[in-house]
Amino acid sequence: MGMPITVEIVDNNDTRLLADTFKFFQEVDNRYSTYKTNSEITHINNGLPKSKWSAEMRQVLRLCDATKQQTDGYFDIEHEGKIDPSGLVKGWAIWEAAKRLRKRDSRNFYIEAGGDIQTYGNNAERQPWTVGIRNPFNRDEIIKVLHIKNKGVATSGTYIRGQHIYSPHQPNTSLTDVQSLTVVGQNIYEADRFATAAFAMGKDGIHFVERTEGLEGYMVDNKGTATLTTGFGEYVYA
Fold it and tell me: What's this model's pTM, rounded to 2 decimal places?
């Protein structure tokens, strides 16, 4: 998926769980990567008829369309005639991997891919999982520490990958008002897709998070000012 992936399972020593989880992520990358010439998404962008799309691809693209509708078009996978569902697929893949682990009786684990996190249960110290929010102006500094249990955490920003998120309503305008936006959701699928859309909204994104049931958020703007939703404090450890 073009990013490091970390999986920690506390309550099960079966190494096949880790192997199968990473195999799943590799399969997702092979199917959805826009950088791989033989991926299904590349074939679709090159004209593969809908009748030949996989059932899973159809489902993921329906989820993308539903997210577009839910965000007033701020989440849009189409750009310059091509589609790229990676803004949804990463969170969806982490969530799917988590569901697979739970089906195999894992109850305490952590999955992180490119800064997006799904937690279940407790860590090895029998405490909620600890998640840090980086200072977008100094990546070596943690500005908030969260205690997270059975939730997903996603951060959108431009301080690591540069300007890779754009507003579909102003596609030629760089997003500079917000440096990072962290969203805590019921699961990483919800947190990730809405974090992407909210970041595209600029400073209005934190208000969208506030209005959306099941989400809490923490935004750092271009002046270094932090704004958080009313319920975000319940997750803050330090």
Answer: 0.92
